[in-house]
Amino acid sequence: MGEQKQRIDEASAFLRKHSAIQPTLGLLTGTGLGGCAESMAVEYEVDYGAIPHFPVSTVSGHRGRLLLGHLQGQAAVVFQGRFHLYEGYHPWEVVFPIRLMQALGARTLIVTNAAGGLNPAFKPGDIMLIKDHINLTGENPLVGPNDPDWGVRFPDMSCVYDPKLAGQAQKAASRLGWPLQNGVYAGLKGPSLETPAEIRFLKTIGADAVGLSTVQEVIAAVHAGMRILGLSVITNVNQPDRPVPATLEEIIAVADQAAPRLARLIQQFLEHLE
Hints:
Blueprint: H1 2-18, E1 25-29, E2 41-47, E3 65-71, E4 74-80, H2 91-94, H3 96-104, E5 108-117, E6 127-135, H4 163-176, E7 181-187, H5 196-204, E8 209-211, H6 215-223, E9 227-237, H7 248-271
Parallel strand pairs: 1-4, 1-5, 5-9, 6-7, 7-8
Antiparallel strand pairs: 2-3, 3-4, 5-8, 6-9
Helix pairs in contact: 1-3, 3-6, 4-7
């Protein structure tokens, strides 16, 4: 734990040396969604590989770049690309951006991802407000010694996604005249995608969408005491009785098409953020 904290301290010191921005907001983007911050007034940007101890994205569709600046007037740190358990990273490495966000002072997290739809009412390109999640990865970033400076030993998970932020996101979508789906996100380890039997199981246990990210970072953010807004772009809809093969290229293409709408929703949300 001491070594992990030292790495975070060194990474945060590196960023403070290059920028005086003190972010109150963090944005973590998923596959094909790095453009969500195109409207940001960027003061400083850096590739992940240049930040001390920072992991490096290995997946197509993840830019692997950190931005510091202002989003709709909010001092923000943006991570364009994330890390996944299936890349071989330890859960602690997956949540490095969250711990860095915490060290920089950010108290609100917006997390986005690309997800497969399970709810038959969904269609590709929909945006789903995450109201809860199911962690099926078999991993947890809080395993091991607990540092009380980072959070309590047993963080409560009864209200992970902040209902006030969710309500403001709904209002933002209404102002834009857009529908906003909502549902439960199931997080798997990957990298293999789901079998038809697994899709049936996920639907049975109440999942509306499924993906290979997000839950580790969100657990760490709850531990850090952050308010969290989660948004999924539905890239395809899984029908177990009529399975259709999915490819990463197709998923990225749908995410790329939906990214401008997601960016506009986030902008509208931040313009009226309480």
